[in-house]
Amino acid sequence: MATKILTKSKMGVDQVEPALTPPTAGPTLPKKPQLGASSSRKREIPDGLWIKCPACSAMIFDKELDANLKICSKCGHHFPIGSRERVHSLVETCSFEEMDAEMASVDVLGFKGVATYKSKLDAYRKSTTLKDAVVTGIAKIGTHRVALGVMDFGFLGGSMGSVVGEKLTRLIERGTEGHLPVIIISTSGGARMYEGMFSLMQMAKTSAALAYHAQARLPYISVLTHPTTAGVMASYASLGDLILAEPKAMIGFAGPRVIKDTTQAELPPGFQTAEFLLDHGLIDAIVPRKEMKDQLVKYLDYVTGGQKATA
Ligand SMILES: [Zn+2]
């Protein structure tokens, strides 16, 4: 035992890794001791294996988190979930027919800031393997055929540019033509500043498409997830016949500081949470992620008058 420790210290290797991951059972293998020293040690720990829950500080194994629909098993905190995982959690197996999968944003304004819009798009396409911040398609939920749109906060903060607006508008129009209910799961920081006015126009376009859908007396269910704010909240996300939200989701238009400065009033605690908005009548129900599919089926049964989808 003594010899072992002596050998290690001679080689200049620290015995214990910092407590970023729970300690492994076996001894750590010496890795290039002379290079980099302490600053490089952090990088030797595989990234993303353990995630700390921001609500209860529990360390959760990432595979366990994935298997649990990105919900903390200790306290029920809802982590952000990707659009494809969300689609998978809601629809019947192999029933999702994606629409406009190849539609991609272009840098129409030649936007240059700290980083160019083009470089941002390239980076997010690479990191998320998505083309933009929404996935749309026709799917079956329970026995109901629905037009389903799911946003992804991981792509440029779920911001709404021309592609997000156009894909959702086409989805809603397809719903109207096919007499299908529309369900949109939102998460967004708002309109995409890199596209300026082109982003803001999407608010009117999606709202108008929903008006035609409503005229055809078809149901639209809007699901708000953490966070849903600004231009998205001010357009299609708040237009649902039924508005649902995930627990503790942050929902609002402007940030608390802007509201406080504008109104010069003290804001009540938690005023932009799903729970507060349920109490004040803006949303109809809070539905935990794990119950979302079953609840959507129940609501669809109800709003379609119990008629089974024929297609
Ligand atoms: Zn937790």
Q: Tally the helices: what do you get?
A: 11
Give a list of the ligands.
zinc ion
Shape: globular
| Residue fraction in strands | 15-25%
User: Structural class given helices, strands, pairing?
Assistant: alpha/beta
Taking the alpha carbons of the first and last residues, their distance comes to: 72 Å
Total beta strand runs: 9
| Average pLDDT | 86
Description:
The chain is of the alpha/beta class. Helix content is 36%, strand content 15%. The chain has eleven helices and nine strands. A seven-stranded mixed β-sheet has the order 3-4-5-6-7-8-9, sandwiched between helices. Helix 6 links the parallel strand 5 and strand 6. Helix 6 packs parallel to helix 7. The N terminus is likely disordered. The structure holds zinc ion (ZN).
